[in-house]
Every structure is written in structure tokens, then in C-alpha cells.
């Protein structure tokens, strides 16, 4: 099995769970349609896959951790719906289709986002209440994820992103800090929560967190690079939108070559946290980290 | 101490906790200002007070349950911010002040709501991780609250409310169901979670849930009545806004007198769930239930 096949297989397992996870919850029909429109719009399912890979690497059971993994995709999806709103990035297109508020309407999109964020926490509790993982572990993982997704993490990062948009002379460390909050926090939490749910030792949880931090930065740099050199069909959104919106990016500060080198350096640092582990999950995480940066080479 | 003094004393305890609960979380300054603008805008703090009263009635410690109680106010506040948005109810005024998106801007208001909802879950975990309540209890309470606040509860109720607005001939049972989701679910969860966090027996948890359901309906009927007979200064919002927006209400379906009688009947049913308990928390809950409906007499 090639790495891409392995990634596809793992994403398909997450997909299968996501398809049913909002049913039997008494959700009004149009709201459910709007939530599923965005949740089931494809995507690499990177965050759930990271939860399950770190969980598996440290001895966890994928079936038991699955609701928690799925919750990360709910949170990621809600953030995309709200980011696309007219008052925010005002994007009409997401993953090659009309964004949620274009397909439905603004009120429904706001509520679909609110609903996905809240259902994510229902899913997290199910790793204990349905799947039987110890309440202490699940509660700790919820705390980690809530902080990462909240106003000191992802939501705060989006607020800072809005403030920086259109501003010139944004220094590199401000850009880094914004991205660490906006995209890095959730990727980091995915790795960390996977380890916590496996009942791993603190040193393993530390490795997971550090790995997540480094690939989080690499991921964002590559995202910025692809916005310059990618094509609309692959990205599912217009190329050059960062520049059009007046966003400071790694390429705009460092140039393309230096950005690509920096992404590779972060991936190399991430990989140091995988030494000392063995087996197919270690191999997968190694290749996943390389894959993030290889997309721009 | 009169009932109103008791209510004020309890609200003040919640207030004191809310003032500091978002600090030390690395929240960007403008976002924090926006979150606190709405969170600390006054209000009766009814949901936290209900958590603490049921918790106390069943032997719980108010200090330990406080973060969970505060989380309910974060969720209530986020729902008000999002409901006021131009794409939703488009309200410029809330509690006698400019609504969040008028005071700040739409993007900030959306993010402040997202942030308050997410921080609520951080607070919930703190009842275990900081205050030491058993993880099993806290996890169960989180599951109850997340379902109540989510797309099958409060968020779903707002979606149905938007669908029903402007429609004529809405039957009473559809109105009841919508309100049971939109406002009833959270009030019910407040009582139920208070009991769960106290480690109460299942029969006590059932009583708390039933009490919450009944006062939830009464509360909404009274809210509708006050929108007709109240005054702007007391309400902090324009009188008659329901009718102006084309909303079906209890008075519009049943008339004022029948609505007031119905509210009183629901309160009387709620009170049956307090028989068999004794002491100052029982007395307080009794008077609180009466107070809800007495506001229109």
C-alpha cells in the first residue's frame, strides 16, 4: 500500500463515521442539510487522521477514539463556514462548490456553524459515554481541544487575521503567532488528544504536541505557497486570493524559495519527535509530515 | 432576606466569577473586549443561579459547581449575540445598549459568539480539572448541556424560529416545540446539570429536569406577554418587536389572559417537583418559579 492509499483508507474510515454522526439528534431538516453540506464536502480529514494515528501509535483503539476524531472535523468545518461569511473573508467558493451561505443563506450558515461546534462536544463525550474510554482521559482531551479551538486559539487567530488583513509591514513573528493560533492550535490538539485518549505517558503526549506544532507551521507555509503557485482546480478556491485580500503571507515576506525551505525545516523538526517509535503508525505519521511539504515540490 | 435580595445575592456571586473567568487565556484584546461587553452586560443570571440552586438543594458545593454555572451564561450570551446579527433578528439594542455587532462590528460579533461558546466548554472541564468534581459527573453534565445547546436544542430552535417568522397560521404545538428547543432546553439543562454535578440520585435528576422543563415554558410565555405589555426601559429592547417581526407568540394565538393563566399552570406543575425537598434552596427555587410568572401580574 502506498502512502496515498493509506491516507485514503484512513480518510474513508473517518468519512464513514461522519456520514451518520449527526443523525438521530432531532436536528431540523434544513439545518441538518446545511451542516452536512459542509461536513460531507470531502477534504483530506487531516485532523481526525492525526488523532487516530497518534492514538494508534501509543496503543489506543481507533474505534473508541473515532467520535473524538470526528469532532475535530466538525470544529474544522464550522470554522470554514464562519470564515467564509460576508462579514469575514466573504468567500463564495469552498472546495469547488458554493460556500455554505451561498448554497443556503447567511442565517442558516451561522447556525450550521454554531451547531457543528456544539455537536463536536457531544461527539467528544461519546468517546466515554458510548465507547467506554475513561472519563478522566476524555475530560482532559476535551479541555485541550476546547482551549485550542477557543478565543485563545483558533477563534482568536481568526480575529487577529482580520485585524492584520490589509495592514502593511506585518512582521514575521506576528504572522507566525497568528497562524499558530488560527491553524496550528487545532492541528496540535489533534495530535495531543490522540495521545491523551490512548492513555499515553506524559513524555509521549509532549512528543505528540511538539510534532503537531511543527507540522502546523509547515502546513500553513505550504498553504500560503500553494495560494501563489497552485491551480484553482486543485485548491477548490481561486489562486491568489491572499494577495487580492491584502493578506500578509510567508511568500510575501520571505519569497517562495525561502518559504519552501522553511516549511521543509519545520517538517524535519517535527520528525525528530517520531524517533523512538516503531511500526506502521510511526511510518504513516512520518510520511504524512513529508507529504505536507512535498505538495509544493 | 426577601426573595429579590436572595436572587440579587446569588446573581452577584455569579457576576464576581464571570468578571475574571476569561482572563489569562491569551485572548486578543479587541475580541476579549467584545466578549466581555456582552457577558458582563448585566442580566438576571438565571441559568447559573438555577445550576447552583439545584446543585445546593441536592448537597453540592457552590464553589465547585461555579465554573459550570458560569459556562451556561457564556452559552446564553453567545446565543444572544448571534441572534442579534443582521442576518438573524437584526436587533440594534440589547439590554438597553447597542448590540454587540453595533458596538464592535459583525465579524467581531460572530467571533465573540464562537469564542464564548467554546470557552464555555473550557469552564465546564474546570469543574473537574480545577475544582475536583469527579470526571464522570462532569462529563455527563457536559453531554447534557452540549445536547441542549446544540442543533437538536437551542441552535435548532433558533433555526425553526427563523423558519416560522413571517408565517401565518403557526399551530400552538409547533410554537411550543420551537420554544422547548430555543429557550427551554438550556433552562432544563441548567437544573439537570446542577443535580448531576451534585452526584444526585436519578430520581432527583428527573425532578430537576421536569422542574426545568415546566418553568422553561412558563418563562417563554411570560417573555411573549411582556413583549406586549412591558415597557422599553424594563425590557431593554423595544416593546412590540415580536409583532413587528411577524413572530407567532402565545398572546397572538391565545390572547393575553389565557397566556397568563397558562404560564401560571406551568409554574404550578413545576412546583410539584419540589415537594419532598426542604431548606433554603427549596424555598428559593419555589419562589424563583413563582417570580417568573409574577412579573406579569
UniProtKB/TrEMBL annotation, chains A, B:
What keywords were assigned to this record?
A: Isoprene biosynthesis, Magnesium, Metal-binding, Transferase
Q: Which GO terms describe its cellular component?
A: cytoplasm
* Swiss-Prot/TrEMBL cofactor(s): Mg(2+)
Question: Matching PROSITE patterns, A to Z?
Answer: POLYPRENYL_SYNTHASE_1, POLYPRENYL_SYNTHASE_2
Gene Ontology process terms (BP)? terpenoid biosynthetic process
Q: Which Gene3D superfamilies match?
A: Farnesyl Diphosphate Synthase (1.10.600.10)
Q: Does the keyword S-adenosyl-L-methionine apply?
A: no
Q: Can you name one GO molecular function term for this protein?
A: metal ion binding
Record-stated family? Belongs to the FPP/GGPP synthase family.
Q: What is this protein called?
A: Polyprenyl synthetase
